[in-house]
Design goal:
single chain, 4-stranded mixed beta sheet
Length: about 550
């Protein structure tokens, strides 16, 4: 049962108990007609008052708080009860007749809800319409314009064959309305069927969205309708039209006199002389009462915020393959465990590349100077410089306390040997069996010394980290475990710390506070990208403007 029409029938005075149970527990009922009996109905005012009070108690909307009509009906009901206690219908309580003269005649009462529209699932009285508030004396203070959360026709939407329409505002990248993504901005739609009243659009959270979106669903009567959007930030309100959507001028709009009067008043108030949107023709053909409930929130995809995006993962794979060809894995592990070590290195490669980018960015990008290798191990707290500082002074007590415990440390000679082993030329030149002259040997020695003094490339720096891992975790059960423990316990916890901690790159695919903030700043980020992404020098200029060039900047 969806539509129950009991209008123009006499109902008992205590019918509200049964009606309340129906309205509360029915899973399918969406429209109820009561009262409106053409003759004398002694209980009509009491029942109408009870309905309005029940709706006010069970609906959270401000527009359904007790109204002047409900108060008048309550007073009329109280006077009727007092008259009955006074001894019959011929006697009335003092003042009762005067109150009845001001009480409007009872009409048919229509209660509606729409289970297929999320904003309209609560019961509300659509007829008779709520009387306008009494006119107040003019004052200097401006009263804010009322805002509707949604809209339903002032009649039974089933009898009127109304359908659902969704209004959606997508923040454009540029032009009017491009600043509406800010959290301090409110978006409204003003449709013609609501006499261009304000209906607020709520911010939508859509997984994977690239722009901020606002939307609201309303019940629309058949016909052709027009609308315009409005943004409000603080005390400033602006009328807007969505880009790439057809518009019409005001003289071309087919609206009644009351709607045109409201529209002209709005345009004068906002000083607007632009275009308006025209929706498609809403037809009543094939109307049927929807049987499904409102749309549920789209189930968010199961996304790991720490997963790499496909494009970055592909580029990391290319770097990994290149580094594996350049590294001396034969010095790091046995041939039998090489496949296991390569698989472990691929799992750790994202973090290894991050720490390389941090150190190389502070050094001589894209290479790392040998002197900066000592600074890296010092920052990781695995380098033991002894009791003397390189400048000749003594180390502080806090620095010496970092080296307490049984953890293995690297000495300065250890780091020097690892650098020489990493930079050394492993392959002997192919002489074809010929005897090498002293001058050729001298030239080869000079070339090797020159090579050993060069900055470290990316594969050489990563190899340095792996050699240090074998020294620090010498008691690990395998080489792969030694690498993994060093990256997790040293690199991540001591080097990749705020403000240079690991970044969850897939967090943007999950709806929430982060994606809202990112989309809200889309316009600013886009302008910054257009201005500072042309070269490395421009990007460094951005860091200087933001005053990020401190000791930890890279």
């Amino acid at each position: 049962l969806a539509h129950l029409d009991l209008a123009e029938n006499l109902l008992p005075k205590d019918v509200m108990a049964e009606l309340s149970a129906v309205l509360t527990w029915s899973c399918s009922l969406v429209a109820v007609h009561i009262l409106g009996y053409p003759g004398d109905d002694p209980h009509e005012a009491h029942i109408a008052d009870a309905c309005r009070r029940w709706v006010a108690a069970n609906n959270e909307d401000e527009e359904y708080l007790p109204s002047p009509l409900a108060n008048k009906l309550s007073e009329s009901t109280a006077n009727s009860a007092a008259a009955e206690e006074a001894g019959g219908t011929g006697q009335r309580a003092e003042g009762g007749e005067a109150e009845e003269e001001h009480c409007p005649p009872p009409e048919e009462v229509v209660l509606c809800r729409a289970l297929h529209v999320r904003e309209l699932t609560s019961w509300r009285i659509v007829a008779p319409p709520k009387p306008p508030p009494p006119e107040e004396k003019p004052s200097s203070a401006k009263k804010p314009e009322p805002v509707l959360k949604t809209w339903m026709p002032p009649c039974c939407w089933i009898c009127g064959q109304s359908t659902v329409m969704e209004y959606r505002w997508v923040v454009p990248d540029n032009g009017p309305g491009s600043d509406t993504a800010l959290s301090s901005v409110r978006i409204f739609v003003r449709p013609s069927f609501a006499n261009f009243a304000r209906i607020e659009l709520k911010r939508k959270r859509t997984p994977g969205a690239r722009r901020v979106q606002f939307g609201v669903s309303v019940l629309v009567p058949p016909g052709r309708h027009y609308h315009i959007f409005e943004s409000e930030q603080g005390l400033t309100a602006t009328l807007l039209t969505a880009p790439d959507v057809p518009t019409v001028e005001m003289p071309e709009m087919s609206i009644n006199g009351k709607q045109r009067e409201a529209l002209e008043q709005l345009c004068r108030k906002r000083r607007y002389n632009g275009h308006f949107h025209a929706s498609h023709q809403v037809s009543s053909e094939g109307f049927a009462i929807p049987e499904q409930f409102g749309k549920e929130d789209e189930k968010e995809p199961d996304v790991d915020p720490w997963a790499e995006e496909p494009r970055r993962l592909e580029r990391l794979r290319q770097c990994y393959e290149y580094d594996m060809r350049e590294m001396h894995l034969c010095d790091l592990c046995h041939a039998g465990s090489e496949n296991e070590v390569k698989a472990t290195l691929w799992d750790l490669y994202g973090r290894l590349y991050e720490v390389y980018a941090v150190v190389a960015g502070r050094s001589q990008w894209p290479t790392v100077r040998q002197v900066d290798v000592y600074s890296f191990f010092d920052e990781a707290k695995v380098l033991d410089r002894g009791s003397q500082d390189p400048t000749g002074g003594s180390l502080s007590e806090s620095t010496q306390s970092e080296f307490s415990g049984n953890e293995h440390r690297l000495s300065v000679p250890d780091v020097q040997r690892m650098i020489f082993s990493t930079m050394a030329i492993q392959m002997e030149p192919d002489t074809g069996g010929r005897k090498i002259s002293k001058s050729a040997k001298h030239a080869a020695a000079v070339e090797q010394q020159t090579q050993e003094g060069q900055p470290l490339t990316r594969p050489q720096f990563i190899e340095m980290i792996l050699r240090a891992a074998l020294v620090i975790n010498s008691d690990a059960p395998s080489v792969a475990v030694a690498f993994s423990n060093f990256v997790d316990d040293v690199v991540v916890k001591r080097v990749l710390v705020p403000p240079l901690s690991l970044y969850p790159r897939s967090l943007v695919l999950i709806t929430g506070e982060y994606s809202d903030a990112l989309l809200s700043g889309r316009k600013t980020l886009r302008e910054a990208w257009e201005r500072f992404s042309g070269s490395l020098g421009q990007f460094n200029a951005l860091s200087q403007l933001l005053k990020l060039c401190d000791r930890s900047f890279t």
